[in-house]
Amino acid sequence: xxxxxxxxxxxxxxxxxxxxxxxxxxxxxxxxxxxxGLFAIHxxxxxxxxxxxxxxxxxxxxxxxHFPIPxxxxxxxxxxxxxxxxxxxxxxxxAGGGATP
Length: 101
Fold this sequence. Notes:
The protein is mainly beta. The protein has one domain: Lipocalin. The chain contains 1 helix and 5 strands; from the N terminus they run αβββββ. It has one helix at 2-6; strands spanning 15-22, 31-41, 44-57, 60-69, 89-98. It has a 5-stranded antiparallel sheet with strand order 1-2-3-4-5, with no helix packed on it. Strand 3 (44-57) and strand 4 form a beta hairpin. The N and C termini lie far apart (43 Å).
């Protein structure tokens, strides 16, 4: 996958740059939000919206997301002629942080 599809040596970075979020965030429970932004992979940027579960606890936050990446639709090679694989890959993301005074 790294060598033939992602071409990781040529395109070593994958980035997501969020530009806006939608949804109501509460501190009592996990909040489902939609985060829109540009997903950069394989030398191209693609607009996408990611469903995120956001948890706030005091000055700390945690986020988790699980969403498909349509790599074939986004111009990467489909290895199905060698292997039987789907034309999307599921991505799971977990992040967290805190506020500093």
